[in-house]
Write a structure and sequence with these properties.
Elements (H helix, E strand, L loop, with lengths): L6 H6 L7 E6 L2 E10 L5 E4 L5 E4 L3 E4 L9
Antiparallel strand pairs: 1-2, 1-5, 2-3, 3-4
Length: 71
């Protein structure tokens, strides 16, 4: 069985990659940039201090949209 056969298309069509979002995790809010999505579906974020982190739970709110991205 092929794993994650839909992930390439999911990542390609994501509207959050390249955008700044507010991440709410454990009742704390962080301003982060979404730089990718892992093959396991985790958001790859860049924090304000420049460090990257994989996030598998939490809530995001779009703050800025890159309208130049093609769908």
């Amino acid at each position: 069985i092929e794993e994650n056969i839909f992930m390439d298309e999911y990542i390609e069509k994501s509207f959050v990659i390249g955008n700044t979002v507010e991440l709410t995790k454990y009742d704390k809010k962080y301003l982060v940039e979404v730089v990718g999505i892992s093959k396991d579906g985790e958001l790859i974020i860049k924090k304000e201090d420049g460090t990257k982190e994989y996030v598998s739970s939490g809530e995001i709110t779009r703050l800025k949209v890159n309208y130049e991205q093609e769908y």
